[in-house]
Amino acid sequence: MEDMPSWVNVTIATGGALGTLVTAIATFFLWRATKILAHETTRMAETAAQPHVVVTLTPNPWSMEHFDIHIDNTGNATAYDIFVTFDPPLENGEARGEHIETPFQKISVLKPSQGMVSYLSEFKRLKGKTYKVEIIWKRDASRPQLQKNFYTLNMEDYEVISRIGDDPLVEIARYIKRIEKNWSPIAKGQQRVKADFFSGSDRLHERRQANRMHRQRKREHEAHSSTDA
Question: Using CA atoms, how far apart are residues 58 and 121, in angstroms rounded to an integer?
Answer without folding.
Answer: 11
